[in-house]
Amino acid sequence: MASPANSFVGTPYWMAPEVILAMDEGQYDGKVDIWSLGITCIEMAERKPPLFNMNAMSALYHIAQNDSPTLQSKEWTDSFRRFVDYCLQKMPQGRPTSVELLRHDFVRRDRPLRVLIDLIQRTKDAVRELDNLQYRKMKKILFQETRNGPLNESQEDEEDSEHGTSLSRELDSLGSNHSIPSMSVSTGSQSSSVNSMQEVMDDSSSELVMMHDDESPVNSSSSVVPRKDHVFIRDEAGHGDPRPEPRPTQSVQSQALHYRNRERFATIKSASLVTRQIHEHEQENELREQMSGYKRMRRQHQKQLIALENKLKAEMDEHRLKLQKEVETHANNSSIELEKLAKKQVATIEKEAKVAAADEKKFQQQILAQQKKDLTTFLESQKKQYKICKEKIKEEMNEDHSTPKKEKQERISKHKENLQHTQAEEEAHLLTQQRLYYDKNCRFFKRKIMIKRHEVEQQNIREELNKKRTQKEMEHAMLIRHDESTRELEYRQLHTLQKLRMDLIRLQHQTELENQLEYNKRRERELHRKHVMELRQQPKNLKAMEMQIKKQFQDTCKVQTKQYKALKNHQLEVTPKNEHKTILKTLKDEQTRKLAILAEQYEQSINEMMASQALRLDEAQEAECQALRLQLQQEMELLNAYQSKIKMQTEAQHERELQKLEQRVSLRRAHLEQKIEEELAALQKERSERIKYLLERQEREIETFDMESLRMGFGNLVTLDFPKEDYR
């Protein structure tokens, strides 16, 4: 569906709200053509679109923020009103599609088939009647020139004004040119659909030529050379030079031809309207260029904001990626350090185990060597004691001479056996004691090695947990630093984005104000041009009115002259002849006095007319200037109000963005602090549990070891010392 505003590229009156908002927010769909159709319906009904008497910049704000327009007149049917309201839904989602519109009651209702044809024929008849009026005017001028000479300029101007009035009334009766838009909108914003009803077809000029050719024998002393919209009057009797009315130049005619060719769809259009529309088209180009530049600026601003947002987003992504890499690097380094520490501790434990095994073996060897030495010394002392006892027994037996030798031998053998048995028991007891000593000291040494291993395990786990705590504290400090750097970057980016947005809004508002001021100057120039034309036209109008007063004066003089003649004849008839001279003198004096009074009244009427017309023109122009200034001031105040509203909305948006950022930053910091506390609490809990588990395990190992020692009969090994015992 084509938008009806195609002939007004750059004007916002047919734009849907989402089209205007799309300059800031994004894209729109085909529902904008449905809106344009509704606006076109209002234009066809009221002969101009809504907000047409308003500046284009101000109309932008009204369309985007106000409610949907409606039909103002009460004369339209309910189905047409519903159709227009259906097309002009504010939200695009509630607006119908073209298929839904085709099913509407207003579209499906029965209607005459010859409406457009009858309207075209009616307009053609009106234009033909207009041409006949022009022809009759020219014929009247020709007849008067033939009979009385050329008409004076004032009479011609009077007839021009009368025919112009009849022309405007005729066209207004057809509704062809509705209030040539009320001087409150630039002439470049006038609709071709409004003007299309007043266009004259080209064949009307040919009809005018044919009519002049048919009527030409009426007056042979003058010839009329008809042209489209312009006529040359030649006076063949030599009463004056040809008086051509202004005709368009060749360039204007070529532009008019191009304009007609460009608008072949126009219903009826005359060459004079084409010329006027060429001038309007030039002014329309200024408005189109202004609106195109405004749209281009808004799109450029949107692109700048999007580019800055993308740049800031990329910068934030890069910043977060950098921080994430730093966190991963710290985690990897922490894992590597913990692995190194674990390997170091394993190596230390293995080394301590080897050292403990070597010490245990060395300790056992020392005990065994000492016990072997003690055993050797013990055996040697037993041998010496055995020899001493043996010699002592022999001496005792040798001294006893009463005992038989055999008995002595038996007693000596028995004594040897007892001694050997005693020494064997002592040796066995020594070996038992040494074995117990060896086992007990080895057990104690194992307990001591186990306690030392426990101490090493405690030291290792404390070292590991301290390392983890240090790493976690470093990680937390790094996360806090990351949060602060991210916070600074977010505030800096938000400040940059808001600053650019405010700069662009200020530039946009400055452009809108410049466009409004330019619009105001153009309106003032147009009004000044109109007043200048009125001032130029005023002498002609005054001269015409003066001629009218003069004609009334002449008529009055003729009436008085006739009355004077009748009175003179009557007086001469009823008075004696000798009094005729006195009566004639008296009547002559009375007539002279009355004519002088009439002349004084004539001059007074002329002066009053001049003063009243000049005062009326000045007052009218001053009233128009005041009305224009008031309207422009209201539009400027409205624009300032909307700009202030947008500025306040933007500042409120910036405040909300800042509050939202502060809330997000504080919430993120609170989550980070909570996470740090939870991780520290978890680390402390892990530390306590691991140390508790280690101590409990070690305690169970010691208890188990001590229970086994008790079952082995070693007693309490806690206070065991290493004395050099005598095993005998």
TrEMBL record:
It comes from the Eukaryota. Residues 1-107 form the Protein kinase domain. One of its GO terms (biological process) is DNA damage response. InterPro entries: Kinase-like_dom_sf, Prot_kinase_dom, TAO_STE20_kinase. Keywords: ATP-binding, Cell membrane, Coiled coil, Cytoplasm, DNA damage, Kinase, Lipid droplet, Membrane, Nucleotide-binding, Serine/threonine-protein kinase, Transferase. Its main location: membrane. It is found in: Cell membrane; Cytoplasm; Lipid droplet; Membrane raft. One of its GO terms (cellular component) is lipid droplet. This is Serine/threonine-protein kinase TAO3. It comes from Balaenoptera musculus. The lineage of its organism: Eukaryota, Metazoa, Chordata, Craniata, Vertebrata. The gene is TAOK3.
